[in-house]
User: Fold this.
Amino acid sequence: MSQTLSVQLRLRDLIVSGEMPPGERLSEPSVAERLGASRTPVRAALARLAEEGLVEPIPSGGFAVRSFAEEEIQDAIELRGTLEGHAARLAAERGAPAAALAEMKRLIARMDEATSPPIREGNFTDYVALNAHFHELLVETAGSAVVARQIGRVVALPFASPSGFVLAQAALPEAHRVLTAAQEHHRGVVEAIEHREGARAEALMREHARLARRNLDFVMRNQESLRLVPGGALIRRRSWA
Amino acid sequence: MSQTLSVQLRLRDLIVSGEMPPGERLSEPSVAERLGASRTPVRAALARLAEEGLVEPIPSGGFAVRSFAEEEIQDAIELRGTLEGHAARLAAERGAPAAALAEMKRLIARMDEATSPPIREGNFTDYVALNAHFHELLVETAGSAVVARQIGRVVALPFASPSGFVLAQAALPEAHRVLTAAQEHHRGVVEAIEHREGARAEALMREHARLARRNLDFVMRNQESLRLVPGGALIRRRSWA
DNA sequence: CGTGTCGGGGCTGTATACAGACTGTCCTTT
DNA sequence: AAAGGACAGTCTGTATACAGCCCCGACACG
Assistant:
């Protein structure tokens, strides 16, 4: 693995895990020393993280760890809904290969399994992986590199990803109801794509993303569950400074 | 201006103008020598252009000038329509400041002027500038940094921008009709935002982008007009290699 | 004549040196 | 005592040196 990639991944981990608090200045020399690399790969890694949106350039030069207003995350989630809706509509309008549809149904069935009793340890992480896979497959099925790339950029923000809040949601009293609704959306989208119902597929994915917004609402009222959200330490409550 | 930025802009010009043909390999030393900078800023500039999508990493290392399939551009334009529709809907739902609406109306009026007789030299370039400004203002009015950033990334591809085909469209026999339709869309969107009609605003912006797809269709059948399109040299006709 | 191997050239990734700009502090002056 | 200026430390932007890798071509051998 290249030094650049290594620095990028480790730095992202440090940020997302909250070890680097929002606002912390990241100077090239300090990061270089901390991660044991020279300035050149550190510089490249910082530039990429800035592209992702996890750090931002500050006026005095260099970068700082970003923080995110709750509204901003709501916007990002809704935007993901719109983009995934776009992808679903494309898949429906242009037709999806039977193999892709079958695979999506299989994933849905396995998510059903993972969320039905008996509840075992690790069921939720199984669900998270399956869910992520489902969403990726949906985007791929749309068959547009441009769209896939764009969605990838939105999802790069950890809390905007389709699985960002699923883990925290386990602590939610309505966890079961939300999961049932989510699975109903999944089923509906596949059916809509199969029947070439573009508008329905699009509407469903938009509504699907609203579940994440509900989860965010809840998590913001529950500081303990916030720690289960990747990047949760970067979220600032409504109206700080 | 920094060397990095200078190299980035000049290299982009060389690519978009067609001086660097698609497929041409861009090695750091060659670009550095050609543009009179050292490898360090060249490297940074290439990375940014890769982010924009104008160049792509090639397996043997380094980058090459990208080419774009017609379908890909159609996809990018439709995606822009969806995103601008999203922005318009947000503006409508959340309400737009009166000043922004007034400014948009003013821009529309000036576009009317620019497209009505007497046709002067430069009318079209006026229109292009006003149109670009209108679209930027619309995005800004949505009031979401996340959405603005995302749209900016799609629009970075020159032919996906709202004004990409307007200039070439001047050669189109239906130029006047298309412009009239576009202005009708502009008027309708402002009205919809003003009346808080989110769905209408969104639908109009989507339809608006379809005009660009029509223009692309035409331009692809008219090699001369293709040269008026920024980045036209990068477009490859349906099914090359 | 075809194939395999060896060598050279060029390229990327990385480290590091250096110049200019900036920030923050401390001292001096009013 | 407060304000302004000078200085030191640090940072970024840039250039450049160096190592390892890959690709291509040439040459020799079967």
